[in-house]
Design goal:
Strand content: 15-25%
Number of strands: 28
Structural class: alpha/beta
Distance between the termini: 27 Å
Strand order of the largest sheet: 1-12-3-2-16-28
C-alpha cells in the first residue's frame, strides 16, 4: 500500500458508532482484513454488521460520505434528496418506449447508499415472486432473514421480527395518517378489493397501510440501523469505514480476486472481496476488471479475466405511471410520512401468482411534466407494473473507471408492459370514481378525455410513465454468480446486492436486498 493518502471531505468520525472506526488516511488501514466490502449501501451495511459481530475484521469502502442533510431524517422531505449531493444523478439512455425521453436513475452516494435517498418503503413482496427464484433463495428460505432484519411496529409473530436492527413502521400502528389515504382504503374496498392488516404478513395482497423504514418519525436507513448499532469488541472497532473513496477496479490474478484497486494503492484482504455496489455499479466494476462479455471488453481495451456474457444484462426495473390525477375540493392535509400512506396490491387474476399491479395513493400533486400541470390542492393515484417483461442492460461507456455506465432499462420495450399499465390506469380510475372519494374529488384532471381512444390511451401512458427506481438482475444468481453468490470463474469474489436478484420481488426492493444480504452473511461466514 502507498502510505499517507489523505481522504478529503469526510464528515466527523463522531457520527460513526463505537463499533465503526472512520478513517481519514490510508496510514490508518490495518495490516490485514478478513474482508473488503465495496459499497456501504443496504447490502454492504448488513454484511459489515453481521461479519463484524462474528469477529471478522472488515474494511467497508464507500464513495460517498456520512449523510448530513436534515432532509435525510425527515420522511416527507425525501423527494428533495434525489438529484442532491447524496445522489450519483445517473440518467438512462433515451427510451424509445417513452417517446425518446431519458429518465433519471437516482442512486445513493452516501454511507447507507440508496436507503438514504429512497422513499422509505419497506415491503417484502409476495411469496410467489420469490418462489420463481433458484433453490435456496425462495420465500421459505428468506423468511427467517426478513424476520432477523427487522423490529416491526406491530410486534413479532410467525411472519414478522421483533428484535432486528432495522425498525419497520406500519402506518396501521399510527393515528396521524392523511385523510385522503383513509378515503383510498374505503374506495378500494368499494371497488371490490380486500383489505389486509399487514402487507408483510400472511396476506400480502389487497389494500393496506404503507410500511416504512422509520423509527419514531425519523428515517431508519441501513447506516443508522446496521452500522450505528455495532459495538466495540475486545480488539476495538471491528469495522473500518473508508468513506469518500472510489473503488477503481478489482485486482484479478490467475482467476482469483486478490484485492480492491483504489487511487494509489491496492487493499488485499485475507478472505473474499464482497462487491456491494448495486445493480448499476457492481456490473460496471466487474467489467472494468475484465469480468463480463469478453468481446465487448476487448473492444474497449480491457483484457478479459472471465468471459461472463450476462454481466450487465437482464436489467429489470418497475415502471410506474404518474399519474391518474384529481383536483381536490379543499386542501389535502400533508402526509407525515412518505406521501403515500395507503396502497393496493391488486390480486392477480390467476390464483397463486404474485400481483402485477400496484396502485399507490399520493397526497401530493405528482405527475410527469410531460403529462401537464397539476396545481394543488390535488391527489394522485399511481399505478405501477410489478412484473414487467421488458429487459435492459448496463454497459461500459469506456475503460475510464470514473465514467458512468450506459444504462438502458428498455422501458415499455415489450408491448405487454404497456397493456398492464393500461389495466392499472383503469383500476386507479375505478377507485378514484368510488363514492368514498366524493367528499374529496372535484374532478379528474388526468388522463381525462385522453382516455377515450386507443391512440389517446397509448400516448398518455408513454408520456406519463416513469421509473420506480428499482433496478435489479444485472449480476443475477445462476448467470453471473452461483447460489452462494460467488462470481463464476473468479475465486475470492462475491457479489451481494440488488444486481444478484434473479427477478423483481413484486414490491419495492429494499427489504429483499436486506434479506438477501442477511442470508449472504451466513454464507460468507460458512466459507
Amino acid at each position: 500500500m502507498a502510505g499517507g493518502v489523505a481522504l478529503a471531505g469526510l464528515s466527523s468520525p463522531a457520527r460513526a458508532a463505537s463499533g465503526v472506526r472512520s478513517l481519514t488516511s490510508s496510514e490508518q488501514l490495518r495490516a490485514t482484513y478478513d474482508h473488503v466490502v465495496v459499497g456501504a449501501g443496504s447490502a454492504g451495511c448488513v454484511l459489515a454488521h453481521r461479519l463484524a459481530r462474528a469477529g471478522r475484521r472488515v474494511l467497508l469502502i464507500e464513495a460517498g460520505l456520512r449523510a448530513d442533510l436534515p432532509a435525510v431524517t425527515a420522511p416527507p422531505a425525501w423527494p428533495s434528496l434525489q438529484e442532491s449531493a447524496l445522489d450519483w444523478r445517473y440518467m438512462t439512455t433515451p427510451q424509445p418506449g417513452l417517446g425518446g425521453r431519458a429518465i433519471t436513475c437516482p442512486r445513493g452516494k452516501a454511507v447507507g447508499g440508496s436507503s438514504i435517498i429512497n422513499a422509505l418503503a419497506y415491503q417484502r413482496g409476495h411469496a410467489a415472486a420469490y418462489d420463481r427464484w433458484p433453490a435456496g433463495w425462495r420465500h421459505a428460505d428468506l423468511l427467517p432473514y426478513f424476520r432477523r432484519a427487522e423490529t416491526f411496529s406491530g410486534g413479532a409473530n410467525a411472519w414478522r421480527g421483533g428484535d432486528g436492527p432495522l425498525h419497520v413502521l406500519s402506518l396501521a400502528d399510527v393515528t396521524d395518517r392523511t385523510p385522503v389515504a383513509e378515503a383510498f382504503m374505503a374506495a378500494a374496498q368499494q371497488a371490490g378489493f380486500p383489505v389486509t392488516p399487514d402487507l408483510g404478513g400472511e396476506v400480502t395482497v389487497g389494500v393496506g397501510w404503507n410500511q416504512l423504514s422509520i423509527e419514531g418519525h425519523s428515517r431508519d436507513d441501513a447506516a443508522t440501523a446496521y452500522l450505528d448499532s455495532l459495538e466495540s469488541g475486545p480488539a476495538g472497532a471491528p469495522v473500518d469505514l473508508l468513506a469518500g473513496t472510489e473503488v477503481l477496479g478489482l485486482e484479478i490474478e490467475r482467476g482469483r480476486c486478490i484485492g480492491v484497486r483504489l487511487a494509489g494503492w491496492v487493499v488485499r484482504p485475507e478472505g473474499d472481496v464482497l462487491l456491494c455496489a448495486g445493480a448499476i455499479d457492481s456490473p460496471r466494476l466487474l467489467m472494468l476488471s475484465g469480468i463480463g462479455p469478453a468481446d465487448e471488453l476487448r473492444a474497449l481495451g480491457i483484457a478479459s479475466a472471465a468471459d461472463l456474457p450476462d454481466v450487465g444484462r437482464h436489467l429489470e426495473d418497475h415502471p410506474l405511471l404518474a399519474g391518474v390525477a384529481y383536483q381536490a375540493r379543499r386542501p389535502v392535509p400533508p402526509s407525515h410520512y412518505n406521501h403515500c400512506d395507503s396502497l393496493l396490491y391488486v390480486p392477480h387474476a390467476t390464483a397463486g401468482r404474485s400481483p402485477d399491479i400496484l396502485v399507490m395513493c399520493l397526497s401530493v400533486p405528482f405527475v410527469r411534466p410531460t403529462v401537464g400541470p397539476l396545481a394543488a390542492p390535488a391527489y394522485v393515484l399511481v399505478p405501477c407494473h410489478l412484473q414487467p417483461r421488458s429487459r435492459g442492460s448496463v454497459r461500459l461507456a469506456s475503460s475510464d473507471p470514473r465514467a458512468a455506465a450506459i444504462i438502458d432499462p428498455n422501458y415499455l420495450g415489450d408491448s405487454d408492459d404497456l397493456a398492464v399499465l393500461a389495466k392499472g390506469v383503469e383500476i386507479a380510475r375505478e377507485i378514484g370514481a368510488a363514492k368514498a372519494f366524493d367528499d374529496w374529488r372535484a374532478k379528474e384532471v388526468y388522463p381525462g378525455p385522453a382516455w377515450t381512444t386507443e391512440a389517446g390511451r397509448t400516448d398518455f401512458i408513454r408520456r406519463a410513465t416513469d421509473s420506480f427506481h428499482h433496478p435489479v438482475g444485472t449480476c443475477r444468481i445462476g448467470a453471473v454468480v452461483d447460489e452462494a453468490l460467488r462470481v463464476k470463474g473468479v475465486a475470492g469474489l462475491r457479489v451481494i446486492d440488488a444486481s444478484v436478484l434473479p427477478g423483481l420481488p413484486a414490491a419495492m426492493i429494499n427489504a429483499a436486498v436486506t434479506a438477501v444480504a442477511e442470508k449472504a452473511s451466513d454464507l460468507v461466514l460458512a466459507g
